[in-house]
Design goal:
Elements: E1 4-10, H1 14-25, E2 30-33, H2 38-42, E3 49-50, H3 52-60, H4 65-70, E4 72-74, E5 76-81, E6 84-89, H5 90-94, E7 98-100, H6 103-116, E8 121-122, E9 126-131, E10 139-144, E11 147-158, E12 176-191, E13 201-204, E14 210-216, E15 219-227, H7 237-247, H8 250-255, E16 261-275, E17 278-279, E18 282-284, E19 290-291, H9 299-318, H10 324-351, H11 358-374, H12 376-386
Parallel strand pairs: 1-2, 1-11, 2-8, 5-13, 11-18
Antiparallel strand pairs: 3-7, 4-7, 5-6, 9-10, 10-11, 12-15, 12-16, 13-14, 14-15, 16-19, 17-18
The structure holds arabino-flavin-adenine dinucleotide and P-hydroxybenzoic acid (PHB).
Residues 47-49, 200, 211, 213, 221, 294-295, 297 line the site of P-hydroxybenzoic acid (PHB).
Length: 391
Amino acid sequence: MPERTHVAIIGSGPAGLLLGQLLHKAGIDTVILERHSREHVLGRIRAGVLEQGTVGLIDEAGCGARMHREGLIHHGIELSIRGARHRIDFQALTGKSVMVYGQTEVTRDLMDARQAAGAPTVFEAQNVTPSGYDGARPVVRYTANGMAKEIACDFIAGCDGFHGVSRQSVPESALTIFERLYPFGWLGLLAEVPPVAPELIYVNHERGFALCSMRTHSRSRYYLQCDASEQVENWPDDKFWDELRRRLDQDAAAHLVTGPSIEKSIAPLRSFVAEPMRFGRLFLAGDAAHIVPPTGAKGLNLAASDVHYLAEALIDHCRGGSDQGLDHYSARALARVWKAERFSWWMTSLLHRFPDTGPFGQRIQLAELDYLVGSEAAATALAENYVGLPF
Ligand code: FAS
Ligand code: PHB
């Protein structure tokens, strides 16, 4: 393992891997330090929808072949409100579409490309500690197989997610945190059953939100809004399927194919932004800097736009160009982050049951949904945010 590299990347999730691949293609050396094993990282079931900008970046990284072969192009979504389905036609409203292709597969494609390129990743790196980034000689220390190691570098990319070490290594006085916690979570189930409909269905129901998504024509992903304190052990498959069926409209309920779960988990929902996203020679990207509730399918796509800005800036710097990209990275990334935070908060507020809403709030939510499905302007606003605002 090299003891020096241009960019030390902490985290082998989509942000770290995509950054590593874009820098590799520009001839810039990186080392990725990942605290878990490759199998553990690939065992996570996360996002499912890619914006066109993210698809373009994966292509730019030279990792898009399987995505285009196996991914599903979707030209719209459906909203299920009081038992009736209303389609939001992305193609007609924006001329754009989205790609349904699981984050797990994106991660696998990027890992395979990195391995094929011979770019180093240290899996199961423990006690990863970034330091010296407020000066000109950053260093990342870690232990591997019980041996203390360190990597000298020019820059550190903190791509280690919400619970990572990078943001935590920054003095609290240097960070401003913005956060909103939601009084519910998402109980997700993955099963080898055909999807209930050709496109995603977002359900607003008096019993709670539900989402019908998919990975392929034979593998489906479903979510149910559940109490924030809910335990997945309380949800045997039959109970999940019964509750989902109760929240679906008649047609969807009639077409629901159930089967044994491959994966079942509960994700908490939060909105979170840490500002700024740069500290000297440490740059945060992806979930390390921000979290959105998954309602708007923005989490993974925001990681992609951060990486687009950061890779461009680092390549400019390493080619002896200006440092303008590095200096503007945080402001540029945050401008797009906050628009996605707003959209994700809005979609969540629109579709979920909030315990303290009350009768008036309930009526306002239904009025907003009625307006949305009856107004081309309102539907266009949803569509252009969902397919992804420009990078
Ligand atoms: P990630 O968290 O994916 O990757 C960070 C990596 O850093 C991990 O591999 C981690 O092991 C590693 N790491 C952490 N600490 C480290 C340390 N100290 N040293 C070394 N490595 C370290 N988004 C959607 O759009 N739709 C969804 O449905 C959706 N569902 C989600 C469900 C869950 C449970 C979670 C947690 C997130 C979900 N997201 C969803 C958001 C998710 O897709 C993220 O946006 C995406 O993973 C962001 O990628 P990264 O920034 O690379 O962070
Ligand atoms: C998913 O398929 O996991 C998914 C799709 C859309 C969302 C959230 C999750 O908004």
